[in-house]
Write a structure and sequence with these properties.
The protein is mainly alpha-helical. The protein contains five helices and no strands. The two termini are 25 Å apart.
């Protein structure tokens, strides 16, 4: 599945979540997608984003570790269905939006958490989601500079 379609499917799933376990599971899914998109761009993306893309893949895997108690829903990881990052700029823009929404959802979970363990897992995951968002923003800036300078 193409990256933008996969990201949009995850965004819709997150919007439909009404329970804490569901939100946490979708945050886990989003970070798996960030890891996968980062991995794809690190190996086959524009040269200008490859180093930052490696970092995105690494931060995505750390966030999934922070949300270790999140059970997978039937169907497993959506990120496993990623086959193509057709348009890196569009995929990164969509991913940045998704990561922002995931961060906001995790903040809502953290402030309402009755378990201290869940609270700290969310705080750790929020930090990593923020780092992933920063990496996405950096890659978008690099792509914009490349286009501005007329580099193909």
């Amino acid at each position: 599945m193409e990256a933008v379609r996969l990201i949009e499917a995850t965004r819709r799933a997150l919007e439909q979540c009404t329970t804490v376990p569901g939100i946490v599971a979708e945050a886990w899914q989003a970070q798996a997608i960030a890891e996968s998109v980062g991995g794809r761009l690190a190996t086959a993306g524009p040269l200008v984003v490859r180093a930052e893309a490696r970092g995105l893949g690494e931060s995505g895997s750390r966030a999934r570790g922070a949300l270790h108690h999140a059970g997978l829903r039937p169907g497993g990881l959506r990120a496993d269905r990623l086959t193509l990052v057709e348009e890196p700029r569009c995929a990164l823009t969509a991913l940045g939006g998704l990561l922002g929404e995931v961060g906001a959802a995790l903040v809502r979970v953290a402030v309402s958490a009755e378990e201290e363990g869940l609270y700290w897992q969310c705080i750790e995951a929020i930090d990593v989601v923020d780092e992933s968002g920063d990496r996405v923003a950096g890659m978008l800036r690099s792509l914009a500079l490349r286009e501005r300078d007329g580099v193909p």
